[in-house]
Amino acid sequence: MTQLFQRRAEIAVGGLLVSDLRVAFKIEKTARRAPNKCEIRVWNLNPDHRRQLEQLATTRRTIPVQINAGYVEALGTIYVGELRTARTERDGPNLITTLAGGDGARAQGARVSRAFGAGTPLASVLGHVADALGLGRGNSVEAFATAALGGNVREFAHGTVVHGRAADELDGLTRSAGLEWSIQDGALQVLPLGAPLSTTAVVLSASSGLVGSPTVDARGVLKARALLLPDLVPGRLVDVEGEILRGRYRIDKASLSGDTSGKDWHVEIEGRAP
């Protein structure tokens, strides 16, 4: 079993890699279409690197941001997104550079406009709208291949038109097909409503990182806290093995936070029974 100690973190922004300075981060991931968010703080970058990051934040180009974090024996990617802002402020003897990022933020403004003829498959329309977002396809190709309106209609007998914000059009189409979509690490994730990813469940117990006692409220929402584990992501199944509470849940929200020189190195999850 992987030992959850000797924490590590690497921050990659454009062509700059930060791995030997103090860094702290806060990440919010959800199974909804809203962009996942992150805030990164880096202590005492050299002047050239500070200027480089601040200049990158002002460009019109998409600047990738990636956070790899975990432990010496288990470093994993916990965030992929786009740089939005960068600023540096003094805090006593330290200069702290704060970066903000959004996962697929630019895709929210993408637009689509096309008419499809009679007999066009639903999968083709979904694929066209998804491509307009400019994201990685993720698992969308497989999910769209079996999609059906109302559970059994797989084509538009009289054709259809998509026009407007691509995200809004995708909302309407997927909802009609009993699907939900989100952006995870720069790629589409498409699932049946309330269903989990078809991957092995993560076992969450005291021996695998569970911290404290998980709870389930009157609405059936699980809340649990664990040591930072890259596999605890929206859509993933988790087998909770607490001292009192046990059960299987789909993660709907994951809030990750860490500081390579502080006490924080945790993930808080919320979810429901699938």
Explain what this protein looks like in three dimensions:
The chain is mainly beta. The protein folds into 3 domains: 7-106, Phage tail proteins - horseshoe like beta roll fold (Roll); 107-185; 202-272. It is built from 4 helices and 19 strands. Strands 1, 2, 3, 4, 5, 6, 7, 14, 15, 16, 17, 18 and 19 form a 13-stranded mixed sheet that branches. A hairpin with a 4-residue loop joins strand 17 and strand 18 (246-259). Helix 2 (122-132) packs antiparallel against helix 4. The longest helix is centred in the N-terminal third of the chain and has 12 residues, at 47-58.
The helix content is 10-25%
Unreliable stretches: none
Give the overall shape.
flat
CATH class of the largest domain: Mainly Beta
Q: What summary fits the major beta sheet?
A: 13 strands, mixed
The number of distinct helices, counting runs of at least 4 residues, comes to 4
Architecture of the largest domain, CATH level 2? Roll
Draw up the topology in text.
Layout (H helix, E strand, L loop, with lengths): L6 E7 L2 E3 L4 E8 L5 E8 L3 H12 L5 E8 L2 E18 L2 E10 L7 E6 L3 E2 H11 L7 H6 L9 E2 L3 E6 H11 L2 E6 L2 E6 L9 E4 L4 E7 L5 E6 L9 E5 L4 E14 L5 E8 L2
Parallel strand pairs: 14-17
Antiparallel strand pairs: 1-2, 1-5, 3-4, 3-18, 4-7, 5-6, 6-7, 8-11, 9-10, 12-13, 15-16, 16-19, 17-18, 18-19
Helix pairs in contact: 2-4
How is this structure best summarized?
The chain is mainly beta. Helix content is 15%, strand content 49%. The model has no long low-confidence stretch (mean pLDDT 93).
